[in-house]
Amino acid sequence: MEASSSEAPARCVEQIDRDRLARTLCELIELPSVNPFGGVPQDADQGEGRVAAYLHDRLVRLGWTSEIDEYAPGRFNTLARLPGTSGGRSLMLAGHMDTVETTGYPEALTGVVRDGKVYGRGACDMKAALACYLEVAEILAERSLRPAGDLLIAGVGDEEYRQEGAKALGASGPPADAVIIGEPTELTACLATKGLAAFELRVTGEATHSSVPQHGTNAILAAARLLGRLEEHQRTLDRRRHPLLGPPTMNVGVIEGGIKPNIVPSECRVQFSRRLLPGENPSDVRADVVADLEPGAWSLGEAWWTVAPYELPEGHWLAAALLKAAELSEAPDPSPRGFPASSDAAYFGSPVALFGPGSLAQAHSLDEWVSISDMVTATAVYLRTASLISG
To answer: Where would I find the Peptidase M20 dimerisation domain in this sequence (predicted)?
Structure first.
């Protein structure tokens, strides 16, 4: 893929193998990589080790240099490099290897091809993109082609929790001039991504016998009133709009309290998350929430889980190349968008854009799937972007 040859990208795109893409994705699905959410992997289904080894072995056989880094006990990154031919800009295709749990999903670890789709845990979030990256490597090897700049493929760990894999990879400095993350963006170029801050609200009451509730204070009912205030708080957030991401949002995900139905509960615990826009930080978000809650016997802790938001600088050359590649590949919507979920984007130390097959509507579901046609389009976009930016 010499930078001076405008025909090379088109020739490469014609070599995309649908069957190989589907087969690769099935093999990745059948290598379990469930995120242990802060713990050391306890069984063979947890951690990214087997996926890291798979990526490493495939890429080494194709002539790439590759290293596996155990950045924490039982947690892994893989970083592979194909040297460029003439010192052009380097591009890293990055994706997380971990998935959410498989509980309640009997066929989670069986990759199934049906009706033009691949099913299984991680199918769209985001092992499909990893399969696309490997297809890029296969095509370049078959045609003995290289871009002008270095091309890198990174499989990272822990995206589903604290982004420790991306943080470890970016700690020694930017690994490439630009990064594309193949999150499931529905084949749209996402130039900004929301962050996350999770908080715990503790409400204190006074226990007593349920037959005389007037002698106690029901912590669950007090928490319910506070949740009503959080709902009002969301309406104020609706007025804060980012041009690509829209408004920030909140979600109450956990509520626990009480012991038995015949005891007035003395405590209730609520966990909620707030999606962050670029420029927002967890401390200011917490202060805004506290200001909107009525006084009472409650406490709101500092954010215990955070992911930074990210936005690619306006007019960046990576955006121009990616949008042009999407247009040439006939992606359904080549206009820039925002990614409503959190991602690794803020931690690589390089300019980042998101583009990948699949939809968040299928991610984390109990019937996860991705379209093979979407994978073909994504692979074409990655090939063309590598050519466009490296010249």
So the answer is: 192-294
Torsion 309-314-318-319 (CA) sign:
positive
Residue 391: which of 103, 88, 150 has the closest Cα? 88
Residue 89: φ, ψ to 5°: -60, 140
Query: How many whole angstroms from its chain centre is CA 221?
Result: 36
Answer yes or no: same fold for 8-193+309-390 and 195-307: no
pLDDT, one tens digit for every residue, the chain (391 residues): 443 343 455 578 989 999 999 999 999 999 999 999 999 999 989 999 999 999 999 999 999 999 999 999 999 999 999 999 988 899 999 999 999 999 999 999 999 999 999 999 999 999 999 999 999 999 999 999 999 999 999 999 999 999 999 999 999 888 999 999 999 999 999 999 999 999 999 999 999 999 999 999 999 999 999 999 999 999 999 999 999 999 999 999 999 999 999 999 999 999 999 999 999 999 999 999 999 999 999 999 999 999 999 999 999 999 999 999 999 999 998 789 999 999 999 999 999 999 999 999 999 999 999 999 999 999 999 999 999 987 6
Distance (Å) of CA 240 to CA 232, 243, 291, 292, 343: 14, 10, 17, 16, 21
Q: Which 3-state string (H, E, C) describes 190-222?
A: EEEECEEEEEEEEEECECCECCCHHHCECHHHH
Class assignment of domain 8-193+309-390? alpha beta
Give yes or no for a cis peptide into 126 (omega within 30° of 0). yes
Which residues 6+ apart lie within 8 Å of 314 measured at CB?
none
First to last CA, the chain: 10
User: Model pTM?
Assistant: 0.93
Of residues 248, 262, 280, 258, the one with CA closest to residue 346: 280
Pick 195-307's CATH classification: 3.30.70.360, 1.10.3720.10, 3.90.25.10, 3.30.1490.20: 3.30.70.360
